[in-house]
Design a protein that fits this description.
The complex is a heterodimer of chains A (about 230) and B (about 220).
Chain A lengths: L1 H25 L1 H21 L6 H20 L4 H5 L3 H7 L2 H30 L7 H28 L6 H26 L7 H26 L2
Chain B lengths: L1 H19 L14 H28 L2 H33 L7 H21 L4 H29 L8 E2 L4 E2 L3 H41 L1
Antiparallel strand pairs in B: 1-2
Helix pairs in contact in B: 1-6, 2-3, 2-5, 2-6, 3-4, 3-6, 4-5
Classes of the chains: A mainly alpha (about 230), B mainly alpha (about 220).
């Protein structure tokens, strides 16, 4: 089993590298993600104005921005392979699982580089301080990981439908509800920073959610890919 | 025809008994009578959704479109009964808590469940090729259903539940009046029979439609 897994890792890293290279040439996905997030953020900050919202509301706003940016930016993960007819070559080159992992790593990279820019901007524009910064960073990281994980397999389904990107939000939202509820609640706790509180349950839940989503995706991806 | 008549008479008796024979519930009063419809509807919804999961798994394993038709019918029936459970629940909630909807953990979970299957039917609608549709729908149903248990852990952290439980965990008893229990169990059996009957009709219709399409291609 161990010998069989190693080529997976190597092959998925090759696919990850290929994705990164294409992304550096076109900057299509990243600019979509970033522009979407910044536009929403500016709209929110603009409409809120000088009024500093409650941390309950800020936490929800942050994850609404990240969720819809992810939906806008990650929906094309597999569509481009279909449109440029590179899908057959990719199918011949590697097994389904490394393809999934490569795309997943790439989506994680995209979302993490998005949060690095957007989250500080968000905190500055909405004038928020973060008393529990370590759990907050963990929440953001695990949240981005989970968004990328669920989005990858949904994007694979979306690429096979006739409506394409329009389907992304519809299909992903019900799957992401537990993740969003957990991240929003964890962010709320971190921003409020009441003494003696920590979002332990939420972080554990996010960890298990990520594990479950990736495992299920690895098992189910084959049926979509070789369809 | 024989079994349909039995089912019709059975359910009529259940409806009559729920208003005439059964006493009003303690604490909840007259509004408690809705349990005779709400809980069996929820039970059938869970049963149909579980069957849809089994059918989806079978489809992915055997690639036989028969299983896809079964999964579709079970998902449809599950959604019908899930909507009934949501509506009866909201009506009761208005009587007991004052609001039709207040994001009680049970209400949150059922709303997410309905959203999953709404997305499932939208997905089925956007794919024309039957085999591709069956594949994508099965994968989506299995994947989405996997995330539902997480709600059980996260939602009570945000909203408290006021939903009554039938089984008293402390005393390990089933909190129900004798007369009520009889009507309740009869209703459970009746609803399950109703589900079986509807499933049978739908399956026969779908199979006939499938055969008709095959004939059309030949002509």
């Amino acid at each position: 089993m161990v010998i069989r897994r190693f080529p997976w890792i190597r092959q998925s890293l090759v696919i990850w590298h290929k994705e990164l290279r294409i992304e550096f040439r076109t900057r299509f996905a990243y600019s979509t993600l970033l522009m979407f997030a910044v536009t929403t953020l500016i709209t929110i900050s603009f409409s809120v104005g000088g009024f500093v919202p409650d941390s309950d509301i800020t936490a929800a706003l942050l994850w609404i921005i990240l969720f819809f940016s992810a939906m806008a930016g990650l929906g094309r993960t597999f569509v481009q392979e279909e449109e440029k007819k590179t899908i057959t070559a990719l199918k011949m080159a590697v097994a389904p699982e490394p393809v999934f992992l490569g795309k997943y790593f790439f989506n994680v990279t995209l979302l993490c580089s998005l949060t690095v820019l957007v989250v500080p901007l968000f905190l500055v524009l909405l004038n928020q301080s973060v008393p529990l910064w370590a759990p907050f960073l963990t929440t953001v990281f695990l949240g981005a990981l989970g968004l990328a994980g669920a989005s990858t397999i949904i994007a694979a389904i979306v690429a096979k439908t006739e409506a394409k990107s329009a389907m992304m939000t519809i299909l992903a939202f019900p799957v992401l509800v537990p993740l969003l509820l957990a991240t929003i609640n964890a962010t709320r706790i971190c921003l409020a920073g009441a003494p003696g509180t920590a979002p332990t349950t939420e972080l554990l839940l996010l960890l298990f959610y990520n594990g479950a989503v990736v495992t299920a995706s690895l098992l189910l991806f084959e049926y979509i890919w070789n369809e | 025809m024989f079994w349909q008549s039995i089912l019709g008479i059975w359910l009529t008796l259940v409806i009559l008994a729920s208003f005439l024979y059964m006493p009003a519930t303690q604490g909840l009063g007259e509004s408690g009578r809705i349990i005779i419809y709400h809980v069996p509807a929820a039970w059938v919804a869970v049963l149909a959704y579980l069957m849809a999961m089994v059918n989806s798994l079978n489809y992915l394993r055997r690639k036989d479109l028969r299983f896809d038709r079964q999964a579709q019918i079970n998902a449809e029936l599950g959604t019908v009964f899930c909507v009934l459970a949501t509506i009866t629940g909201a009506i009761w909630s208005r009587g007991a808590w004052g609001w039709y909807w207040n994001w009680d953990p049970r209400q949150t979970s059922i709303a997410v469940l309905l959203m999953i299957y709404a997305a499932y039917f939208v997905l089925r609608g956007t794919v024309e090729d039957p085999e591709r549709r069956a594949n994508l729908a099965a994968v989506y149903a299995l994947f989405a259903f996997l995330t539902v248990p997480f709600l059980v852990f996260i939602v009570p952290r945000i909203y408290d539940s006021l939903h009554p439980d039938l089984i008293n965990m402390e005393k390990r008893t089933f909190d129900m009046d004798k007369k009520m229990l009889v009507v309740f169990l009869a209703s459970l059996a009746g609803f399950t029979g109703l589900y079986g009957w509807l499933y049978n009709i739908r399956l026969r219709v779908e199979n006939l439609l499938h055969r008709l399409e095959g004939k059309k291609e030949v002509i």
